[in-house]
Design goal:
CATH topology: Endonuclease III, domain 1
CATH class: Mainly Alpha
Radius of gyration: 16 Å
Distance between the termini: 40 Å
Helix content: 55-70%
Strand content: under 5%
CATH architecture: Orthogonal Bundle
Shape: globular
CATH superfamily: Hypothetical protein, domain 2
Largest sheet: none
Structural class: mainly alpha
Number of strands: 0
Number of domains: 1
Number of helices: 11
Amino acid sequence: MTLSITGDDAADALLTENPLALLIGMLLDQQIAMETAFTGPEKIRQRIGSVDAATIAGYDPEAFTEAFRQTPAVHRFPGSMADRVRTLCQTIVDDWGGDAAAIWTQGDPDGKEVLKRLKALPGFGDQKARIFLALLGKRYGFDGAGWRETAGPYGEEGAFRSVADITSPETLAKVREYKRAAKAAAKNG
């Protein structure tokens, strides 16, 4: 299984192989294009040499922010997002022994437990946590009981609502269209 989110082979390989990279991509997925957000972990890896929770948590804050600012920037808000990524990594070190995958593997959790664990992470509100749970279930092999129901509409089979539904450039276009329509409906409603 290889994730196909960004259109960049190296970035998609990192997301597939490194659970922390996938979490960081999800955290970065706000106020920028999905592909840009999910290529962020590969940019971080290239600039600091690693995508590892302990390394990032212990990285010099100013140097880490500078890595975010390098062109092309990791995020349009490099300072605040670098801080958020470092905080996320520190939480993973403190709560999960530095192992991001433990959030969905430790103790054989069901969908509700994983959602609770995700919502406890800094920067992961209810919607982001449900989307990430759907991503784990649809694309990352998580099969904890009740994950689809717990993910809500993001867990629906055949939906094109979020990053969890992207498997190709065509499905990316469908997700974009769904997001455009939802944004327009919210604006007009």
